[in-house]
Write a structure and sequence with these properties.
85 residues; alpha/beta; 3 helices; 15% strand
Length: 85
């Protein structure tokens, strides 16, 4: 059996289910690579509140250990390949 650390690719990162998936992965120390349409805005206050904007959620998730953000679009093959590479 391989002992290599697996990473989980996440799309819909800042959506309701995506953010919960990333939080659960982080709680279990599972590395996640998350696809985002926009760069994380470092000037935005990070938040995971129910009414937080996608930019605030992205900033919060990007601050977590074992979470890597990849800028791209799920409809772009190169972006998806970068996400799963």
């Amino acid at each position: 059996m391989s002992t290599a650390v697996k990473k989980v690719a996440v799309i819909g990162t800042t959506g309701r289910l995506g953010r919960q998936a990333v939080l659960q992965l982080n709680e279990n120390n599972v590395p996640a690579r998350c696809l985002l349409r926009h760069e994380v805005d470092k000037s935005v206050k990070p938040s995971i509140d129910k009414d937080a904007s996608s930019a605030e959620v992205a900033a919060y998730l990007a601050s977590l250990p074992n979470v890597e953000m990849i800028k791209g679009d799920v409809t772009d093959e190169a972006s998806v390949m970068e996400l799963v590479d």
